[in-house]
Amino acid sequence: MSFSRHIVKRMTQMLVPKIRSEYPCVDGIRTHVMKCGDFPADQGKKLLYLIIPGNPGVVGYYDKFMRELYRAHGGRIPVWGMAHAGHVILPDDIIKENSGASKGTYGFKDQIAHKIAFVKNHVPRDTQLVLIGHSVGCYMVLEILKHCPEVDVLKGVQLLPMIERMKETPNGSRLAPSTYFRWLAVFVAFLLSFLPDVAKRWLLKLYFLGRKLDEGAVEASLNLFDPNVTNNSIFMGWQELSLVREPDLQCIGQHLDKLIFYYGVTDGWAPVSFYQRMKNTFPQGDIHLCDRGIQHAFCLEQSAEMAGMVAEWIEQATAAEGGRPLHTG
């Protein structure tokens, strides 16, 4: 690495801005949106990362992943992430502003409509999107591609995709019986919600004992002590079991040039057989099988490594489009 490039990299590491939280009203629902960076003033074509989480859809889990993506491109691409409806505890001032609104229980189809509404109404029109889905968020990325043809999407990145046959997966078969205990889980969350935050953090650190969690993981997990969040997460998961069936091969084939798939070797939500089937169906597709030991919940401990890979893919994509390659120091 040249001395000048080293200096640029060091400056970028120091200048990554604090991620800011906003709470826009999306399809009538106050939604937690995290934003890292702004569009550079001297940039002609605006490029934006948008992260769609898995379940639970607490966007705070992706704090470090967002920072690393922003840093990898030298601050040239802002990174946004949006939570699922009802999966985050809202700040007191936002709750007071919406005191008359029902918290509601949002199903899987509601969450898909929620993401489509955000892309259509809250992303600047003159922006080219890099959609990043994680787990069941990958299913939502496909739905956005299908229902938002007017949106300029450079790439749809499918990280550890959970887009098919959820009931047949090892984790899906284990999850199915637990959905019958939804209200018991909600009741336990209700009881735990009365604990002070210091006690909740202690319980989480005990649960994650021996693991080096990425920034924001413990704080994000505090949301799971809220009974409304627990209810929405379990209800959404229960509906996923019945709705995530056959992969949408028509949509995938139509948008294959925009899609990048990254499957895990030991992923309980997407066995290697799913990768092999996808690769055989679309041999010309950009479909990868992990060789780095990255786990399904990469946002807990492996954000930096995943962000580095994604940044490289997007640099290659922008260069292939004939645009200015983006610096990934």
Automatic annotation (TrEMBL):
Subcellular location(s) of the protein: Endoplasmic reticulum; Lipid droplet
Keywords linked to the UniProt accession: Endoplasmic reticulum, Hydrolase, Lipid droplet
Chief location category: endoplasmic reticulum
Keyword Chloroplast: no
Domain of life, source organism: Eukaryota
Enzyme class: hydrolase
Reactions the enzyme catalyzes: a cholesterol ester + H2O = cholesterol + a fatty acid + H(+)
UniProt family annotation: Belongs to the AB hydrolase superfamily. LDAH family.
Name of the molecule in the record: Lipid droplet-associated hydrolase
Primary gene name: LDAH
